Amino acid sequence: MSTEKEVVSVLQYLDNKTILVIGAAGFLGKIFVEKILRVAPKVRKLYLLLRASGEKSASERFNDEILGKDLFKVVKEQYGSNLNDILEKVTIVNGDICLDDMGLNKLDSELEHEMVQQFDAIVNLAATTNFDERYDVALGINTLGAANALNFAKRCAKVKVFVHVSTAYVCGEKPGLIKETPYRMGETLNGATGLDINQEKKLVKEKLSQLQATGASHETITQAMKDFGHTRAKVYGWPNTYVFTKAMGEMIVGANREDMSLVIIRPSIVTSTYKEPFPGWTEGIRTIDSLAVGYGTGKLTCFLGDLNAVSDVIPADMVVNTILVSMAAQAAREKETIYH
């Protein structure tokens, strides 16, 4: 049983903290940023790593794709004319998790120095969640991107916790109790040997070179890289490219964390908000939402299922709360902890 001294106040933990959020433009990332701005006005600073996209700068993406969403209406109402005061705590940083050092070595040296000296925590929410994503894209974000984020965290003077958001489905399709145990480098679901992340990088490069040498069209290359990811996942027992690359992401941060306090969050199917900032906020049609929308619009009159099966879905705001509690609980503990 916990003693009163062991109980951690999440809000107190957030006071005067400087946090880097990677993947803030994603579904969970937006909800995470909104929650901190709404409940933790004493947070010192939030840095959001965003990449410029097309003609949009990172700052324009923040205004359009994050702050401009209905999700932030409660924050805007709460602060009213003082909204700019809280937004002054937010710094947008142009970077890309797929690049070495996340592209931060191209920043103004003063800003980079400031970041390296100030961060207390780094939260990596960046991912491509497409099940049949191109293998080069999924490997770049979900696996190598996680390594880039961790490597940057290790450069930071006072980071006390690195949070990596994964998925419960790294465990594949095996039945029974799923334990909160880490994946070690090279471990596979089907017992096959030879899984090596550096070798996967090499295979991707070779496959792309071969396709480009034949003069294949963009569409042909895209389909071939999707098929290649699926094939590589099946070799080692994972059902699709997404969960395979997320599993390797866990391996690479676990193997390279050294004495960094590492938290790996493994949510199941993430769906719309339950309570915060209001019930039912979602973005587009996500995962299991397609069943509800199909049924509600009359386009899906029935579907096959096991009446005894449990559908593991979790509201997005509960995932965000889990991340925040884990940060407060694990800060400076110098170990790896997994939360399903």
Automatic annotation (TrEMBL):
Domain Thioester reductase (TE), residue spans: 23-323
InterPro entries from the UniProt entry: FAR, FAR_NAD-bd, NAD(P)-bd_dom_sf
Pfam family name, one: NAD_binding_4
Reactions the enzyme catalyzes: a long-chain fatty acyl-CoA + 2 NADPH + 2 H(+) = a long-chain primary fatty alcohol + 2 NADP(+) + CoA
Swiss-Prot/TrEMBL keywords: Lipid biosynthesis, Lipid metabolism, NADP, Oxidoreductase
Enzyme Commission code(s) on record: 1.2.1.84
UniProt keyword Ligase present: no
GO BP of this protein: long-chain fatty-acyl-CoA metabolic process; suberin biosynthetic process
Enzyme type, top EC level: oxidoreductase
Gene Ontology molecular function terms on file: alcohol-forming long-chain fatty acyl-CoA reductase activity; alcohol-forming very long-chain fatty acyl-CoA reductase activity
Stored Gene3D superfamilies: NAD(P)-binding Rossmann-like Domain
Coiled coil (UniProt feature): none
Entry's family note: Belongs to the fatty acyl-CoA reductase family.
Main function: Catalyzes the reduction of fatty acyl-CoA to fatty alcohols.
PANTHER family xrefs: FATTY ACYL-COA REDUCTASE 3, MALE STERILITY PROTEIN 2-RELATED
Protein's name according to its UniProt entry: Fatty acyl-CoA reductase
Organism: Capsella rubella
